[in-house]
Each structure stands twice: as C-alpha cells, then as structure tokens.
Design brief:
Layout: E1 5-8, H1 12-23, E2 32-35, H2 39-49, E3 52-54, H3 57-60, E4 65-68, H4 75-79, E5 90-93, H5 100-106, E6 111-116, E7 126-132, H6 138-149, E8 152-156, H7 162-170, H8 172-189, H9 194-215, H10 219-226, H11 232-242, H12 245-263
Parallel strand pairs: 1-2, 1-4, 2-3, 4-5, 5-6, 7-8
Antiparallel strand pairs: 6-7
This protein binds 1,4-dihydronicotinamide adenine dinucleotide and (2S)-3,4-dihydro-2H-pyrrole-2-carboxylic acid.
C-alpha cells in the first residue's frame, strides 16, 4: 500500500494511473494529492475520485511517492523548486524522452525511476517498461514494478532502450487505433454497416493479440495458418505488401523513437 502519492499533471495518463491504483487498492484516495493547473480538470478529478487536487506542484511533491505525468515540454518549470522539499521520495517519471540523467539532476538526492506506460493502462491492459536510476534500491525497483503492474504488464529494460519502447508500445495504441479505423473503413467499403464493421475490426485485433500471446506462435506462423492456398487472405496480404504496410509500421516506430530522443 502506498503511504502517500503526489501526481504532478492530472491529464490522460495521470488519471489512468490514478483510477487503476485506487481501484486495485494500492493507494487510498485520501492519500493522493494531484497538482493540475486547469481548475475544471481539478474539480473533475476531485469529484470523480475523491482525491485532493491543487494548483501547486510543491504540495503534491511532499508525498512519499511522486509521479511526474506532465508533458516533457513543461518539465523544467514544473519541477523547479521541488528538489529540496524532501530527500527520501521515490520519483516516478512517465515523460517521453526525458532521460534519467535529467531527472536525477532535477532530484539529486533521490531514487528516480523512468517509465513508459501506454494508454491501455486505462483499462488495466497496458504495458510499462521501466528503467531504474542510480539511487534506486532493489526494494524500490520491485515497489515500482508493483505500482505499474496495477495498469498491466511490466518489463524492466536498460534505459538505452526506452526511446525505442516509446516508439513501439508507448505510441503503439495510436497506430493500432488507426489500423482498427482503417479496417472498419474497409468493411464499410465492402458493404458492412459501420457499427458491425468497427466491432469486427476491434475483436479481430483483440483476438489475434490474445491468440499470439497464448500460443506463443511466431506472427508469421499465424499469418500462414490464415492464408489458404489461392484464398482470400493471401490476396489481402499481397495487397498490403504492395502498399508497404510493414515498412510503414517499421518507419513509424523509428520516427517515434527518434522523436522521443529529441524530446529529451
Ligand atoms: N498519452 C499517452 O499515451 C502517453 C503519455 N505518456 C507521457 O505522459 C505524460 C503526460 O501525457 P498525457 O497525460 O497524455 O498529457 P496530458 O496533456 O493529458 O496531461 C498533462 C497534464 O499536465 C497539466 N500541466 C500542464 N502544465 C503543468 C505544470 N506546470 N504543472 C503541473 N501540471 C501541468 C496539464 O494541464 C495536463 O492536464 C507525457 O510526458 C507523455 O510523454 C507516456 C505514455 C503514454
Ligand atoms: O505522443 C506522445 O508523445 C506520448 C508518449 C507516448 C505516447 N504518447
């Protein structure tokens, strides 16, 4: 159980983590302070989750655990003056691109974890990669793993891999949403009503992911199992190859990883 949690930035990811941590009983609402400059957003978080929401990062940063959930672009002003408030907190950052070196320079006396979750965290189906800073103990690392396990799977990676993680699983829900939308468009183009097309597209992506996860099959093996000789799937696959689906996705992950590096 987390004794006290401060969340700096009550946006999409701050709320996703907050909601799941509360639902899982990892922290009590009375032990959470969110700092968020938008008054309407603060009111919403307070009404919905019963947490204290303030417009003062220093108040949230008094907690034992501090989650940084602001945009990388506002990192410097958002953390200014927070370092000297305490010297024994566990600082968790989910900021894209911001390296441990920069986080540790901002919180020089403390244990800092850099993490990259993703939006399926909202429904507990996320995946988070974490990398530990120099002052993190084995105990703190396992506490951080438990923290992010509240929103899905957790992998621990060397920090050098976190920009690539961001390009793949951090940004990936955006790519998959585009794929689902496009599959639904294809269904509509082929004559399906929109609602049915979207339901089929979502369940096909979900079912395929579950099948791969449960069987451990190589994705190529699954593709081969779906493709009947001279059948429909190979006709579709050939069209995707002609239109560069694979290289488009490879380039997307590389571009997002590069952007993550630039944000740091
Ligand atoms: N959205 C996503 O899918 C993911 C985002 N991230 C990272 O999570 C972080 C937050 O992203 P989102 O939640 O999507 O952004 P967001 O824009 O929804 O939330 C950021 C919140 O910070 C508040 N804020 C702005 N300036 C502030 C300040 N000086 N002090 C305190 N709060 C301030 C904003 O009002 C906003 O509510 C980013 O660093 C992003 O790289 C990581 C993984 C996935
Ligand atoms: O687009 C972004 O910068 C953030 C980081 C990963 C997902 N969303």
């Amino acid at each position: 159980m987390i004794s006290s949690l401060g969340i700096i930035g009550g946006g999409v990811m701050g709320e996703a983590l907050l909601a799941r941590l509360l639902a899982q009983g990892q922290v009590a609402a009375t032990a959470v302070t969110v700092s968020e400059p938008f008054a309407a957003r603060c009111e919403f978080l307070n009404d919905r989750y019963g947490v204290r929401c303030v417009d003062d990062n220093a108040e949230a940063a008094q907690a034992d655990w501090v989650l940084l959930a602001i945009k990388p672009q506002v990192f410097d002003p958002a953390v200014a003056g927070l370092a000297d408030l305490r010297s024994d907190r566990l600082i968790l950052s989910i900021l894209a691109g911001v390296p441990l070196a920069k986080l540790e320079a901002a919180f020089p006396h403390e244990a800092v974890i850099r993490a990259m979750p993703n939006t399926p965290a909202t429904v507990g189906a996320g995946v988070t990669a974490i990398a530990a800073g120099q002052q993190v103990t084995a105990d703190q690392l396992s506490q951080a793993q438990e923290f992010f396990a509240a929103v899905g799977r957790v992998v621990t990676v060397p920090e050098s891999q976190l920009d690539a993680v961001t390009g793949l699983s951090g940004s990936g829900p955006g790519y998959v949403a585009l794929i689902v939308e496009a599959l639904s468009d294809g269904g509509v183009a082929a004559g399906l009503p929109r609602a049915i097309a979207t339901e089929l597209a979502i369940q096909t992506v979900r079912g395929t992911a579950e099948l791969l996860q449960e069987t451990g099959w190589h994705p190529g093996e699954l593709k081969d199992r779906v493709c009947s000789p001279g059948g429909t799937t190979i006709a579709g696959v050939a069209t995707l190859e002609q239109n560069g689906l694979r290289s488009a996705l490879i380039e997307a992950v590389k571009a997002a990883a590069l952007r993550s590096q630039q944000l740091g």
